[in-house]
Amino acid sequence: MPTSQDMTTHLDPGLLDALQHQVALFARRAEQTRLGGVGQVRNSMDRAAYLLLNRLDQEGPMGVKALAAGMGIDSSTVTRQVAPLVDTGLVKRTSHPEDGRAVVLQLSPRGQARLEEVRSSRRELMAKVTEDWTEDERESFCTLLTRFNTALSARQLGLPGLGEEVPPRPS
Fold it and tell me: CB of 52 within 8 A of CB of 85?
């Protein structure tokens, strides 16, 4: 089995150094701004809240275990992160439709409105940051960033390079 050193010997170390440096800069800048968008809602939703609300919006109501599994984090972390979202009325706990004893988390109407507000602001930021890019460049960047994130996730899970589809472009 090839070692990690064997795998990088045929690759340009300067390019790999530049890549890791740009990824580190991206991570720092993304965290500093939280990619919060523009206007009043800038920096107003942390990464964990955004990702949880977004997943509930895209996949519908689900239990803590399913939410945790889908996000690649543990149930206790989801429980801790979701508590303030429930307290502020962005997420509501409801009974499972088939098993009344089980609890599912669901995006509330207030949560849906807040998520759309943040998405809109972030969309505007993405438009401004890439205003001198062509549509093809935006699509290529999204495709490559999705591929990169998928490879990182697969590595974290110890899987051999999962393929994940690029999210469809809104019509």
Answer: yes
> How many other CB atoms are there within 10 angstroms of residue 85's CB atom?
21
Model pLDDT for residues 141-154, shown as the tens digit of each residue: 999 999 999 998 88
Alpha helices in 3-92 (DSSP H): 4-8, 13-33, 47-59, 64-71, 75-87
52, burial (CB in 10 Å: exposed 0-12, middle 13-18, buried 19+): buried
Give the pLDDT confidence of 9-35 residue by residue, as tens digits. Answer: 688 999 999 999 999 998 888 877 666
Look up the pTM and report it. 0.74
Show contacts of 41-45: CB within 8 Å, 24+ apart. 41/117, 41/118, 41/121, 42/121, 44/118, 45/114, 45/118
On whether the CB atoms of residues 48 and 56 are closer than 8 A, the answer is no
